[in-house]
Amino acid sequence: MSWRSSFRCSKFRHVFGKPSTKEHSYDGVPITRSVHDNHYCSANPCFIAVVTECAGGGSFLVLPIHHTGRVDPQHPRVCGHSGRVLDVKWNPFDDHCIASCSEDCTVKIWDVPVCGVQQNLTKARKTLIGHSRRVGLIEWHPTAENLLTPSTPGRGAICPGGSQTRPKSPSGRTAAPHTAASPRKDLHRQPRAR
């Protein structure tokens, strides 16, 4: 009779991560402490964006992915929000387009130059206004160039990211320019209480 264990042996039991070396990491980035439940950074094949701590509005850094090491405290930032930035997301179809949302009830879409941010960016390509409360989350559609911007439970807007057309409410009707609308139940499904 052969001995058989009552549990499966894991292939990853003795696997340990290896931290990167100092020259392959970012150092001195002033990361924010106020992103609530969101991520404080977003990356794509060209850049990494990090929400930073600052006074008098919101900003974030855009760093080239291959230029690691110590980050200059005076590094140029993307700053155009009057409130704290809560989330940043890269456009999945354009490596030089990023969206940011903040406590000032706006979503801004930015164009990052090919060479990176060389001076402070203050002019957004598009500013989406119309939310009545802070916008805490943004998501790009995985197959279309649309942006979903929920602001409060049960309220949000679908905004076209690449064109200058009007946003649509989740029910398919054309909304007022960049105005929030109530989503359908299949877009934002709430768990049922039992």
Outline the structure in words:
This protein has 194 residues and is an all-beta fold. It has a domain at 25-145: Methylamine Dehydrogenase, Chain H (7 Propeller), CATH 2.130.10. Helices cover 0% and strands 30% of the residues. It has no helices and 13 strands. A 4-stranded antiparallel sheet has the order 2-3-4-6, with no helix packed on it. The chain has a 4-stranded antiparallel sheet with strand order 7-8-9-10, with no helix packed on it. A 3-stranded antiparallel sheet has the order 11-12-13, with no helix packed on it. It is globular and about 65 Å long. Mean pLDDT is 76; it is low at 163-194.
The dominant shape is: globular
What's the CATH class label of the domain at 25-145? Answer: Mainly Beta
Unreliable sequence segments: 163-194
What is the CATH H-level superfamily of the domain at 25-145? YVTN repeat-like/Quinoprotein amine dehydrogenase
Proportion of beta-strand residues = 25-35%
The profile of the biggest β sheet is:
4 strands, antiparallel
SS-based class:
mainly beta
The sequence of SSEs as H and E is: EEEEEEEEEEEEE
* CATH topology annotation of the domain at 25-145: Methylamine Dehydrogenase, Chain H
